[in-house]
Every structure is written in structure tokens, then in C-alpha cells.
Amino acid sequence: MHLADMWIGHFSLKRKENAKWLTNEAFKVATSRHACLRPPACGLALALFMLSIEQPQVTAAHKKYEQKYRELMTEVMRLEAAQDFDSLNKLFNLMASG
User: How far is the C-alpha of 94 from the C-alpha of 97, rounded, in Å?
Assistant: First the structure.
């Protein structure tokens, strides 16, 4: 639930400018994708993703942010690319169960 609070809390501060990030689809994809990681890695990965959305010049200038995001999300991105949704669901369910 904290990932949802992060996402909505942040992007709702400027509703008009961030309307596309507040749609149900964007919200569900972003939060469920990062919920495949254990805390606190899930929060850090989501924060880095949000930084890349709002301040792409910062992530472009400081590669350490992109590197850290890739380090955290490698397995999730690999499973997404392979369209291995069963394994993604297992990761998500494992993290959701505590």
C-alpha cells in the first residue's frame, strides 16, 4: 500500500500537469511492477522511476540513478521481456504476503 501512497501522493500535487500519471492504468502498472521487490528496494525503485519521469535530465546526467534502477529491477524487467507473467505473479504474490 505504501507504493500506492507514494505514487498518488506525489503526482496528485500537480493534478493537471500529471494527469496521465494518475490514470488507473499508469497507477496499476507502476505500483504492481515495483511491488515485485521487497521493501525497502521497492520504494527506492519506484522513487527512481518517478525521478526519471519528472526529471529525466537528472537521470541522464547522473548515470548512477539508472544503474541503481537497473540493478534493482533486472529480474522483473527480464520476466516482463520474456512475458513470463506466471513468474511475475509469483514474485508479486510473494512480496504481497509479507
Answer: 5
Contact partners, residue 97, CB within 8 Å, separation at least 6: none
List the grid coordinates of 26. Answer: 499508469
Q: pTM higher than 0.85, yes or no?
A: yes
Identify the residue whose cell numbers are 521481456. 81
Quote the number of domains for the chain: 1
Domain span at residue 60 reads 2-96
Task: Provide the residue-wise pLDDT of the chain in tens; the chain has 98 residues.
Answer: 699 999 999 999 999 999 999 999 999 999 999 999 999 999 999 999 999 999 999 999 999 999 999 999 999 999 999 999 999 999 888 887 76
